[in-house]
Amino acid sequence: MVILRAARDDDTPQLTEVRTSTLRERASGSYSESELAAIAPKNPDPDRGSGTIQNESFDVIVAQDDGILGFGVVHPSDCQIHGLYVKPEATGEGVGTALLEELEQRCRETGSESLFALATLNAAPFYLKRGYEKISERTISEEPEIPVIHVEKSFAEE
């Protein structure tokens, strides 16, 4: 049974591995190797996300069963999703949807009327199927530029 919980500092290496393996496997058809290297280096620093977990302005939520299946990060003050990753082998089992619903609920609790993400090209369909609207195509980073899709969900329409 999948449970959702707040991330802990000792989760950082596993979260880094989930993020890297997800991007490397799921985004490889959408990005060049140089783009992938920029967003998901093959040998990432295992403590890469520790600052986000420790930063109280971010909510980092973990989906766990026998181990970590995925995680999501939201900044409730501006209701931006900063990442949502599910292990490739857990894709299609509802883990991503459960995480997304939790991130959305945390933003609703702030009184926000909407939530947005800068989704990777491969992740945009996931958001669109769950009521998000495509706002624009844009790039993040400078070298190399990484194409993303700005998606947004209005809570007022629910």
From TrEMBL:
Signal peptide: none annotated. Keywords: Acyltransferase, Transferase. PROSITE patterns: GNAT. Residues 2-158 form the N-acetyltransferase domain. Residues 1-53 are annotated as: Disordered. Residues 1-11 have a biased composition (Basic and acidic residues). CDD domains: NAT_SF. It comes from the Archaea. GO terms for molecular function: acyltransferase activity, transferring groups other than amino-acyl groups. Its EC number is 2.3.1.-. This is Putative acetyltransferase. It comes from Halolamina salifodinae.
